[in-house]
TrEMBL record:
This is PaaX family transcriptional regulator. Signal peptide: none annotated. Residues 235-282 form the Transcriptional repressor PaaX-like C-terminal domain. PANTHER family: PHENYLACETIC ACID REGULATOR-RELATED TRANSCRIPTIONAL REPRESSOR (PTHR30319), TRANSCRIPTIONAL REPRESSOR PAAX (PTHR30319:SF1). Residues 1-27 are annotated as: Disordered. It comes from Blastococcus xanthinilyticus. Residues 31-99 form the Transcriptional repressor PaaX-like N-terminal domain. Residues 121-183 form the Transcriptional repressor PaaX-like central Cas2-like domain. It holds the Pfam family PaaX_C. GO terms for biological process: DNA-templated transcription. SUPFAM superfamilies: Winged helix' DNA-binding domain.
Length: 294
């Protein structure tokens, strides 16, 4: 598995990571997704991007319903996979993103921070077709995961479409799937007259499910941040937002209902993130200071 596979898989759901349900958010998250969110939402915002002591992760994750044993297991597993780098200072363990993972999280952060993360130039699409020989069926799941992460929806077996212009070669390279470029063709495409784009979208994506995820996000964060730990809240907010961005690749609202909620979701996220960031940054400074003081 590559860092792309892990980031794409780090969404909701229980399982061996031991994530508990979030009583106030849009749903439970795997601890790995929360770690990615913590780094992307707070740590990488700092110029120094310091290594983070394990005690900070344990406390933040505990506040989000992740037991200490599960949190420690997540940090160890992410280190074994090369997603994190671990250093020891006295009796304390410190973690930072590996260079590959840091670059990936920063690239994802461009869309995370965008003022229009669900919009693309008018009527631009990327159409992709591939044929997977029987001898390479082991790649099928990884290809599907990489394409889904990049915003593609499946029209039929081996034919995928994504809103906007997607650098497919880069998608495959980031997923460690360079060999698949020999099995695929992709084109920039625009619909011809007579094409029912709204019907095409509903064939490739579960529009009702995507709307439900928007509605869940808005309901969870509409009232703004809650009282409590800003580091934990900004981590949960980022995990909720990343999950929504994975779910909705930016389907063009003009082909959906008049009250399509993508713009409202974006406004809610920006308002909450900007409200939480100053206190979260101060909280991280306090945590790092306590760790140095021992």
């Amino acid at each position: 598995m590559t860092a792309v596979d892990d980031l794409a898989a780090g969404g909701r759901g229980g399982g061996p990571d031991g994530a508990g349900a979030d009583p106030e958010g849009a749903g439970p998250h795997r601890p790995q997704a929360l770690v990615f969110s913590f780094f992307g939402g707070v740590v990488l915002r700092r110029e120094d991007a310091p290594p983070i002591p394990s005690s900070v992760f344990l406390r933040v994750l505990d506040g989000l319903g992740v037991a200490e044993a599960a949190a420690r297991a997540t940090l160890a597993r992410m280190t074994r996979k090369g997603l994190l780098e671990r250093t020891q200072v006295g009796r304390a363990a410190y973690y930072r993103l590996s260079p590959e993972t840091s670059a990936l999280v920063e690239r994802a952060g461009v869309r995370v921070a965008s003022a229009t993360p669900f919009e693309h130039p008018d009527e631009t699409w990327t159409l992709l077709s591939y044929s997977m020989p029987e001898s390479r069926r082991d790649l099928r799941h990884r290809v599907r995961a990489a394409l889904t992460w990049a915003g593609f929806g499946g029209l039929r077996d081996g034919v995928w479409i994504a809103p906007g212009t997607v650098d497919v070669a880069e998608v495959f390279a980031e997923g460690g799937l360079e060999e698949v470029t020999e099995l695929a063709e992709w084109f920039a495409a625009t619909p011809l007259p007579g094409v029912r784009v709204d019907e095409l979208i509903r064939r490739a994506w579960s529009v009702d499910r995507i709307r439900e995820r928007h509605d869940q996000f808005i309901a969870a964060w509409w009232a703004g941040p809650h009282e409590g730990d800003p580091l934990g809240q900004i981590t949960r907010l980022g995990a909720d937002w990343l999950q929504l961005l994975r779910t909705d690749p930016g389907l063009p609202a003009r082909h959906l209902s008049a009250d399509w909620p993508a713009a409202q979701s974006t406004a809610v996220y920006r308002r909450c993130y900007e409200a939480l960031l100053p206190a979260a940054a101060r909280g991280l400074d306090d945590e790092l200071g306590r760790a140095v003081a021992g």
